[in-house]
Amino acid sequence: MKEIFLNLSHYTIVWIILVIVFSFPVISPLLKEGYFPTHDGEWAIVRLAEMHREIKDLQIPPRWADFLNHGHGYPLFLFTYPFPYYLSEIFHLVGFGLVSSIKIVFILSTVSSGIFMFYLGKRINGNLAGFIAAVLYIYAPFRLVDLYVRGSLGESVSLAIFPLLFLATLSLVTNPNLVRVVAVASIFAILITTHNAMALLFTPFYLAFIFVAIKMYSEDWKRYLIRFFLPAILLGLGLSSYFWLPSLLESKFIILSQVPLADKGQHFVNINEFVYSPWNYGLRPSFQIGWMHLVLFIIEIIVLFILRGIVAKKLIYIGLFSIAASVISVFMMNQISALLWEAPLLSSVDFPWRFMTLLTFFMSLGAIYIVEKRIFKILSLVLIILAFFLVQNFARPQMFFERGEEYYETNDDTTTSAGELMPVWVKELPKSRPTEKTMLLGGNANITNTIYNSKMITIEGLAQTQAKIGINTIYFPGWTIKVNNTLVNPDYSNNRGIITFDIPPGPFQIKGTFERTPIRLLADLISLVSIIFVFAVFIKIALKR
User: Of 72, 109, 175, 471, which residue is the least packed, with the fewest Cβ within 10 Å?
Assistant: First the structure.
């Protein structure tokens, strides 16, 4: 029996099953009925309900959330990462409820992150290395914080993309071809649209890893960079330009460009908090790295020096990279890095402790090479088995409740922390949902018919005199108004920042549409051309076969 098990263990499927089994204590609360309180988890459900409305209205890509902000509209998906909600919408469209769809994405992102980390470790140093790294990755304390305290859907999906992107990068280095260039580009694009801050913080490390990957398997870095990775990065930026380009260039229109979401000085992490900070469900979560991860991190450093000159150079490179990236991540979360957080782009990240998500990945990645010494291999397995039983004490929500689908479908708040995506010209924030979408602000006119959805509105009626019409929708660039097929300039200088305009006497037909600005049009065209190129590559390959 022992020989059979040892033989079976060499098959990848057995290791994958083990990874799934070890992930069960972490995901089991998500398999229960109802939901639980987190910082952002329920807002993710409300956002999914809004994205579903926008897709039903054929607003492609979804950008303007007309139902939110108490029915006054909000540029939610212009600035908020959309990809996790695309995934959730797929499950919702095939019949799952809003809550179940979000929970499925949390579950799949957790399990797949372990599987991708396993494959990454397997590729570099074999099955056992991959398994140890995968379990470390799944059991990282901050992952539990993301799932059951913060409820961050974007960061949870990002944790699955990190190892997948590294895996695709190694594949491109070891066997370069056009398909792998497209794969790297596509995964990079998914990362950009999965979480704004994660993409920004992770990209410099990823660019460094490209050099590490090339050094692991080749010395011809110029060839790889120019022929393969530069095109992959540019294609990835092209595929995702529909999101990041308008988000970057149109951010000047929103409050977040003028008022920071948070005081960074209040969100640095003290060194002792990495060693121990109590588990809690408050706004400042636990930043504890975890005893298992700390022990194995120390072992990683020891192994790196013990095996210098003996172990293959690829393990030395991956070890140096993971340790350096971990140290940099800790540094960036500490007060001593405060000056760096004033740099362009980096200043747009709200909390320095967002590096905890990256630290989770880098510290788990380093475990790939510690199996080179038998004693450390045994110790790692003992720690992992012990953690399997202990993790259940932390992988649990504060409580469960059942609100029902209607609660999320009818919730019309902004879904953001402090209304930070509100246009800068709005002086009086909406407090309640208006009884009517349109209103007469001056003159004498009768509005007889109003039809609207998330991307358009039509108004019909008869004006006895020149009149002023108001639409209870906050103006944002892209909204155009036509009165009797004549384009008019909307006035939004009122305190509420809503769309108003004048109409002449007589019958009137008004059509308002939320259209692409020149920036959005350019960004969408770049993405469209990039998508066509990707499809052309796969069609060409399919025809060859």
Answer: 175
